[in-house]
TrEMBL record:
CDD domains in the record: GST_C_Sigma_like (cd03192), GST_N_Sigma_like (cd03039)
A Gene Ontology biological process term: glutathione metabolic process
Domain GST C-terminal, residue spans: 91-208
Start and end residues of each GST N-terminal domain: 6-88
Molecular function, one GO term: glutathione transferase activity
PROSITE patterns hit by this protein: GST_CTER, GST_NTER
Protein name listed in UniProt: Glutathione S-transferase
InterPro entries: Glutathione-S-Trfase_C-like, Glutathione-S-Trfase_C_sf, Glutathione_S-Trfase, Glutathione_S-Trfase_N, GST_C, GST_superfamily, Thioredoxin-like_sf
């Protein structure tokens, strides 16, 4: 299904943050889109405007498709999967497994937020690496071993894979997975998908 006049609205922070998984999915699917960047200094009045116009979430990212707005990074991914008829599994069991992996990938990314907000806190980073980091990496490693990879469903890519890649990439872990062979296999395969490989050469830098 063609998705026309699609726009992503998010902060001007490069590939870091909650919108990147959406962008990765669209790039992989070959869907054209616009990307509207909001400066962080503009956010408070922009948020107030969204709410005053009747948009209940009042948050970023959101997408605009055919003049309608859709909010929530993971719900947007699931919405796009339905529109495209792909990236969500081929039956109810696969769809549930993908949804579970996606939710845990979101937990992984959220757990890392404290380091993004406190990048110079050495003690916090050490604690994360010894505790939450290992917990989430080990969980994702088990997910990717369930169907023998390279993707979480096996040979078929899903929207959860874009989220897991992004969680690892934001944490600068894509080249340091020697203790997690299933994740390393996934990253190696994901990174050479034709549209993804092309996008990664031109993707904007992360702005932390």
């Amino acid at each position: 299904m063609a998705l026309n006049n699609l726009k992503i609205v998010y902060f001007n922070i490069g590939t870091i943050g909650r919108a990147e998984s959406i962008r990765l999915l669209l790039e992989d699917a070959g869907i054209e889109y616009q990307y509207e960047s909001i400066e962080r200094t503009e956010w408070i009045p922009f948020k107030e405007k969204l709410i005053s116009e009747g948009h209940p979430a009042g948050c970023l990212p959101y997408i605009v498709l055919d003049d309608k707005m859709y909010f929530g990074s993971t719900p947007i991914l699931r919405f796009l999967c339905k529109k495209l008829g792909q990236y969500k599994g081929s039956n109810d069991d696969e769809e549930q497994f993908v949804d579970a992996c996606a939710d845990f990938a979101d937990d992984f990314w959220n757990s890392y937020l404290k380091l993004l907000w406190n990048p110079t806190d050495v003690a916090l980073k050490e604690d994360y690496e010894k505790n939450d980091g290992i917990k989430h990496l080990s969980r994702m490693e088990r997910f990717y071993g369930t169907n023998e990879g390279p993707y979480v469903l096996g040979t078929e890519i899903s929207y959860a894979d874009f989220m897991v890649y992004h969680a690892l990439d934001d944490q600068k872990r894509t080249q340091n997975l020697k203790n997690y062979p299933n994740l390393a296999k996934f990253i190696e395969t994901f990174s050479v998908r034709p549209n993804i490989a092309k996008y990664l050469t031109i993707a904007p830098p992360k702005i932390e």
